Structure formats: structure tokens, C-alpha cells
Amino acid sequence: MRACKALIRHCRFYPIDSVLSLGVIALIIWVLWASISWIVQAADWSVVSSHLPLFASGSYPLDQRWRPLLWISLLAALTLITLIVPIKRGSNRWMGMVLPWCWVFMIPLGLVLMAGGLGLTPVPSRAWGGISLTLLLTVCSAVLALPFGILLALGRTSDLPVLRHSSRLYIDVMRAVPLIAVLFFGKLLIPLFLPMQLEINQVLRAVVAFALFAAAYVAEDVRGGLQAIPETQREAAAVLGLSPLQSLQLVVLPQALRIAIPALTNQAIGLLQNTSLMALLGLVELLGIAQNLLANPAFIGRHLEVYVWLGALYWLFCTAMALLARKIEHSGPTLNGRSA
Questions:
Q1: pTM of the predicted protein model
Q2: H-assigned helices in the chain
Q3: CB–CB of 174/213 below 8 Å?
Q4: pLDDT tens across 324-336, in order?
Q5: How far apart are CA 278 and CA 202, in angstroms?
Q6: What angle do CA 311, 260, 88 make, to 5 degrees?
Q7: Given CA atoms 332, 336, 339, 340 in this order, what sign does their dihedral have?
């Protein structure tokens, strides 16, 4: 009753604001109702449901599709375990030690399953595609970009002029160049600098190009974390007898990386979304699968269903990455020694 009276009083004294608010609410309700009605009644989802294996693994050989599907399933299961299981309570404390190694192990496992090895039939990288290729590009690029970005951040804050200026030059150049130009460089120009007998496949070239580009942004995020650490932390480490290297490794860098986690999460999400550019360079990731599928005359006019499906997939992946980053951010002590 009191809320109704407050609403009536607000409408009486602020009629224009009330009309605008009611109009916006009505517009939102109409958009949601129209979207749900289209999804449930008007949309033809057969173009998606009949090609789910294609979205998952691309043109991977039919008799070997269990390999990328297995890797995607393991990634999904590990993500759920990481998000659901508490890692700092009682008997589950050991999960905090096991889970990081499981995540590290997923990278070589994915490469072995996709490329072949350990008795598996070799599959060339040109047959990789879909969700498996998108996740592989994102994970491998991030793993390479993070340590390289940390080194660039340390070089940018170094007292050595040559190291500081060279790191700054690299970061400024990479941030001034569009990503698509870097990808074209990785695809077309890198082979020109290699010996004739040495050939790098397209997936590896894409991973290197993504990592070189993302490292510049990672470096600035880590540098922001380093600048947020009070000088008293270094002084306290020196009083305890730690060398500058030990102080950096044990005191400064862990806290800086924890501070930089939100910004690094944004970079990882952007890296995932930017893998869609690889469709322009011949790699058939998620967007490339959609483009090839819509080129089929049988699916003319089904663009909206396909792109809504792709948007839902990217939203799911990005949300999972954000939740994982939040779990990491809240799983350890902060600067004041308390849990975040």
C-alpha cells in the first residue's frame, strides 16, 4: 500500500519522468514478448539442430569426431566442477591444488586429440573447425599471451632504459595496429621469413598472431596491477631478507595479477570473440561454419536463426569465462589478508 502511494506521488510530481519510464518498460516488455514468440513459434531451428556436429567440430572426419567432442565435454565438465565445488572448505581444500593442474593438462590433451598422436589417426589442421577450433585458438593464444605480457609489463617498469623503451615501443605499435592486420601478417608474411623447408600450419600462425597482439594489452593490465602495489610491500620484503627477484616473484607479482584479474578477463573474452575474424582468413571456426552453412541454397532466409544461435554460444562461453575469473579472484587472500 505504501509503495502504491509513493508511486502515485511520484507520478503526480514528475509526470514526464513517469510517462517516459512507463514507455520504456512497455517497450522492453514488447521486445521480450516478440523475441520469445519468434523463438518458440516462428523460428525454424532445423538449420541448427541438423548441423550440431558441424558446429562442434567442423569438417573433422566423421569417424574421428568423437575426439573434439570428448575434449569439449571434458572442458565443460571441468568448468562445472570448478564453479560448483568449493576449494577452501574442509576436505575439498585439495581441489585447489588439483584443479589448476587439470586445466593445464587440458591444453596438451586438446592438441593431442585434435592433431593425433599416442596411437590416434593424424588429422591435418585444415580439417579442424567449429567450437573445438574456437576454444583451442582462445586457450592457446591466452596461454602464450599471458607470460609474454607479464614480461613486457616488467620490461616497461624496468630501470634499464633499453629494456623499458623497447617494451614500450612494442606495446605502442601493437596497440596502434588493427588486429586484422596482425592476422594477415601472421597468415601471409610469416612464411616469407622462414626457411623454405619449414612450414607452419594456419592454426599455429593464428595462435602466434593472436598471442603477439593480445600480449600488448595484457602488459598494460599487468602494469596497472604492479603500480597498485604499495611500495611498502617491497620494503617489507627487503626487510625480511628477500632479494629483488624473490620479492617480485613471491610478493609483488601475485598481488598484481590478482588485482589485474578483471582486466585480464576482459582481454580473454575479447580474444574469444576476436577468433571470429579467422573466418576471413580461411579457418572454419564458429562464424566460418555459419557462413558455409548459409551459403547452401537450402537454408536461404535462415540467417537470423543461425546468428541467434551463434550469439547464444558466445554468450555462454563468455559468461563461463567471467564466472571462472570471479571464482579465481575470490579464492585467495587480498592485500589485507582477508578473502575477497
A1: 0.81
A2: 2-13, 15-37, 46-49, 52-57, 66-84, 95-115, 130-156, 161-176, 179-184, 202-228, 231-239, 244-247, 253-259, 261-274, 286-294, 303-329
A3: yes
A4: 888 887 775 444 4
A5: 10
A6: 90
A7: negative
